[in-house]
Specification:
With 366 residues, the protein is an alpha+beta fold. 20% of the residues lie in helices and 28% in strands. It has 2 domains: 138 residues, Immunoglobulin-like, CATH 2.60.40.2250; 196 residues, C8orf32 fold (Roll), CATH 3.10.620.30. The strands form 6 sheets. It has a 5-stranded antiparallel beta sheet. It has a 5-stranded antiparallel beta sheet with strand order 5-6-3-18-19, with no helix packed on it. Helix 3 packs antiparallel against helix 5 and helix 6 runs antiparallel to helix 7. The chain is globular and about 65 Å long.
Length: 366
């Protein structure tokens, strides 16, 4: 449901160092049941150190998803030696990021960004529709359109039509495509980062392996091709799973490589509905002991739950695609990692050691 942005009151929270390890849950007792309840406050600290090889600039994603049912945005603050720092909002998707520019010859370009926010579990009741306001015409167009890597015609449309054959309602179609992705794809541990999200290439080659930016992009593209609005949300895991799923949470307070994108589908009468078929495949591959069968209890529980719900241990940054970086000739398919360039050359955002950035998370209390 689209709601007004709820801002945290300034000074209402303070940092805490606590990071609670996930509880152990035996496979035969697998439970994965996110339920809207208490809010949890978090703070994410992103620290960048860039090479001193020429004119340097960077773009750091800021929390900008405004969905008051499951995320409340707080403050963003920063410090460093940048010559300029500006919060920029993408005009198409509303994605916000900090654009920093360092003076030429700066010997040690450094920026540190601190963002606070609150999260809670979400779960939609798909048993009966309610009086949810209609999606605006502009948003419907936006979340039905193709992107550079997510076409909605050709082989994508043909695949969608096969997946939804015999289904009448949007709910049944969206669920059928979710099941199609879960059954036909796989998580590929060799994929760099979260993947590229090149949906057409996946379908043309028949290689349906990848990670979240691939598998959830495939879901979104297929749903859009079926005439139903859908969107990716690019973000990062900030805490362990309270349900004991080692694969579905941050493993430590350092979350530099914990990026994850999720997906939503718009269903009239229900609003934006949480989905995450990619995480089902993650449970299959990575949940201890690993390489789990599709019918193991933990996989079954995740598969059942991740159409309509997700756990509130994940920060959504934005929904942007094909984002042009201001002040640069470069464009990125999505903004989930910090980006930077030196002397006009875009750095490899997946090489955090060379790039020298770290991201840390802490739960905060009142």
């Amino acid at each position: 449901m689209i709601t007004r942005r709820d801002m945290l009151k300034s000074g209402a929270v303070v940092a805490a160092a606590g990071f609670v390890a996930p509880q152990r849950v035996l496979a035969q007792d697998a439970v994965f049941a996110p339920t809207p309840g208490a809010w949890r406050g978090f703070e994410v600290l992103t620290h960048l150190e860039l090479p001193a090889r020429g004119r340097a600039q960077a773009w750091i994603p800021l929390p900008s998803v405004q969905e008051g049912e499951w995320i409340r945005l707080g403050k963003n603050t920063w410090q460093g030696n940048a010559a300029s720092a500006e919060v920029v909002s993408d005009p198409k998707y509303g994605a916000q990021f900090l654009h920093v520019v360092f003076k030429d010859g700066e010997p040690a370009p450094t920026i540190e960004v601190r963002s606070s926010f609150s999260l809670r579990d979400r779960a939609e009741d798909l048993g009966a529709s309610s009086q949810v306001p209609m999606l605006s015409a502009a948003e419907r167009r936006l979340y039905l359109e193709a992107t550079e890597l997510m076409p909605t015609d050709g082989i994508v449309q043909e695949t969608a039509e096969k997946a939804i054959a015999g289904k009448a309602s949007d709910l049944d179609k969206a669920r059928a495509i979710y099941e199609w992705v879960v059954v036909n794809t796989f998580r590929d541990a060799k994929t760099r980062g979260c993947g590229t999200g090149d949906v057409a290439s996946m379908l043309r080659t028949g290689n349906l392996g990848g990670k979240c930016a691939d598998l959830n992009a495939l879901y979104v593209a297929l749903v859009r091709a079926a005439g139903i609005p859908a969107r990716d949300i690019y973000g990062i895991r900030v805490a362990p799973s309270k349900f004991g799923y080692a694969s579905l949470g941050a493993g430590s307070a350092t979350i530099t490589k914990a990026q994850h994108c999720r997906a939503e589908v718009w269903l009239d009468g229900y609003g934006w509905v949480a989905t995450d078929p990619a995480d089902v495949r993650k449970v299959v591959l990575e949940e201890p002991p690993g390489n789990n069968a599709i019918d193991t209890p933990k996989v079954v529980a995740a598969r059942r739950t991740l159409f309509g719900a997700w756990e509130g241990n994940w920060l959504g940054y934005n929904m942007a695609h094909d984002l042009e970086l201001p002040g640069s000739r470069h464009k990125v398919a999505f903004l989930m990692y910090p980006q930077a360039e030196i002397a006009g050359a875009l750095l490899d955002c997946l090489d955090a050691d060379t790039f020298k950035y770290t991201i840390k998370s802490a739960e905060i209390t009142a």
